Amino acid sequence: MTSSDSEKKTIADEFGKAVNMTAKELEHWLTTDESKSVGQKDDGGESVGHESGRKIIKLLQGKKSDRSDGDYAHMHKVVGYVHRHLAQRPSGDVTDTRWRYSLMNWGHDPLK
Fold first, then answer.
1. Cα distance between residue 87 and residue 95, in whole Å
2. pLDDT tens, 85-109?
């Protein structure tokens, strides 16, 4: 994916709104059993969302000027996932739900 500067700015802005956890919060979250208990696992290993969370940490900690087209593609993927998942919010208290845990793996805590 090759993006123009204006597309990259739009993606970065949307990513900044979708990801509401800090790198430190996300790093801590990814060490929890709850984080590891959710998500699609292709070969019994790390889930797609958990792997995404590790990439998000690197994006949050890295220099914006060092971002590659691949980084922007991942940021775009994160925004899409968060928006789709938020639209599927279950009713009731979501504090201890797989729905919330999955979103948190992608850097978004719906209770924030």
1. 17
2. 999 999 999 999 999 999 999 999 9
